[in-house]
Amino acid sequence: MEEIEFLLDEAKESMGKSIQHTANELGKIRAGKAMPSMLNGIRADYYGTPTEISQMATINTPDARSITIKPWEKSVIAAIEKAINDSDLGIVPQNDGELIRLSIPILTEERRKQLVKQVKTETEKGRVSVRNVRKEINNELKALQKEGASEDEVKVAEDKVQKMTDVHIKKIEDLFTAKEKDIMTI
């Protein structure tokens, strides 16, 4: 039935978006190494508009422990510095008038454990998001059955949705495992 295929495609797409979102959130969690993605989501005032730092500056990692931010316009350097200070990065920017340097401190064992907890929280949000997609699609399948779709077709579709859910939750588990290993590796 065409409606059922449409719902299955919708489920796959939505679950894929959940994984992508989880991966993006995990990319923001620093693992002791300097990564430009740490600045994702940090917005600075750019002529009255909150703008991603990556859209107003060149971001480089000259070594494993530092990030440099070179604004395309010197006039926004103070706004970028303020945005970094106001963020939850926990790194004090050093502004030399030309560019901003961020020195990434070495992680303590305690901080590593806190970061792993943060990763667990983000991956759990991802799993919940995938399960919510499953619930939504299953509810829509039941509604189709009430509208006249055959019980067998709906049952087969629900099984496919469950298999899809299992695959996507496994992918989220893999993201967690990789990020945990990255954080705990000294």
Structural write-up:
With 186 residues, the chain is an alpha+beta fold. It has two domains: 2-28 and 108-184, Topoisomerase I, Chain A, domain 4 (Orthogonal Bundle), CATH 1.10.132.20; 36-103, Gyrase A, domain 2 (2-Layer Sandwich), CATH 3.30.1360. Helix content is 59%, strand content 15%. The protein has four helices and six strands; from the N terminus they run H-E-E-E-E-H-E-E-H-H. The chain has helices at 2-28, 77-86, 109-146, 151-184, and strands at residues 43-46, 49-52, 57-63, 66-71, 94-95, 100-103. Strands 3-4-6-5 form a four-stranded antiparallel beta sheet, with helices on one face. A two-stranded antiparallel ribbon has the order 1-2. Helix 1 (2-28) runs parallel beside helix 4 (151-184). The radius of gyration is 22 Å and the shape is elongated. The N and C termini lie far apart (53 Å).
